[in-house]
Amino acid sequence: MTDSTCDVQAVRVWLESLQTRIADTLGAFDGKPFATDAWQRAPGEKLRGGGVTRILEGGNFFERAGIGFSDVAGDALPGSASAARPQLAGRGFEAMGVSLVLHPHNPYCPTVHMNVRMLIATKAGEAPVFWFGGGMDLTPYYGYEEDARHFHTVCRDSLQPYGADLYPRFKQWCDDYFFLKHRNEPRGIGGIFFDDFAEPGFERSFEMVKSVGDAFLSAYLPIIEKRRSQPYGQAEREFQAYRRGRYVEFNLVFDRGTLFGLQSGGRTESILMSMPPVVNWRYNWQPEPGTPEARLYSDFLVPREWV
Predict the structure, then answer these.
(1) Which UniProt keywords apply (predicted)?
(2) Which residues are catalytic?
(3) 267 marked as part of a ligand binding site
(4) Number of structural domains in the chain
(5) Residue 305 domain-assigned?
């Protein structure tokens, strides 16, 4: 959508504050603060701009947690961004967003992903074309129905003021998007996902995205507060590492954000901070029937209406 009133600075300020707020809250929860890595593209590189990576590795609770803010510009949209909009191919662009992935030590605490972003396509003599994207999704290793219901309830409530149709629409989009086609299984229990969103105009679209981003801590913190002290052993850690392999497969094969970053010449270290630190693969492995591991597949990695 074109909109000459795009307030790019307002989006930038909110994204930076969102990153700080989440990093400070989760650092306090862990007991170890996030490190800050501010970076800037060098002159002459394919992309211009920079960002801030907040990273916590080897924490008391988080094995790895990354929260990235980036604001970069380039001379031509990469193929992953213009595939659905061929008329914009070749335009310059500015992309900014906050993206996070959190990997706890405890296998009973789920991995979570959240992203909120805006992309503007530019062309001399024409109004800019903007759109928003983002969402959040939960990837448990051991399923709890009350956790899934809570997460989806917060997602639904964050969208409710902007239209009763948005949650079912974005939930289905999430289920379809975070799906490993080569495994014929979902990555987790979903949440919400949206892209190319600009229908209500800039101001209303930005308000909706803010509501989603601001809801993240309410969606995730109560779950990890409840599960953080649950005891586990080597068998649970091994299953967690096995299921983390699905996370790696999705991010490297299907994730549009990863592909956009790599195709546009983005900062590889920041793009791949979402990867879990400990992962393994097993050949043709299947869980024992009747186990909690088997229940993840039968009860949680299936299409469900959680709220």
Answers:
(1) Cytoplasm, Heme biosynthesis, Metal-binding, Oxidoreductase, Porphyrin biosynthesis
(2) 113
(3) yes
(4) 1
(5) no
Q: Is 117 annotated as a binding residue?
A: yes
Residue 112, marked binder? no
Mean pLDDT, rounded, for 287-291: 96
Task: Let me know if residue 307 belongs to a domain.
Answer: no
- CATH number, domain with residue 105: 3.40.1500.10
Q: What is the domain range of residue 166?
A: 8-300
Could you read off the pLDDT of 239-270 as tens digits, one per residue? 999 999 999 999 999 988 788 778 777 788 88
Q: Could you read off the pLDDT of 27-85 as tens digits, one per residue?
A: 999 999 999 999 888 777 777 888 999 999 999 999 999 999 999 888 877 655 655 66
99 marked as part of a ligand binding site: yes
- CB 257 within 8 Å of CB 37: no
Cβ proximity of 119 and 135 under 8 Å: no
Kindly give, in sequence order, each residue whose CB lies less than 8 Å from that of residue 288, ignoring residues fewer than 6 positions away.
Answer: 294
Please indicate, yes or no, if residue 2 is contained in any of the structural domains. no
Residues 6+ apart with CB under 8 A from 236: 107, 108, 141, 142
- With respect to residue 175, please indicate whether it lies within any of the assigned structural domains: yes
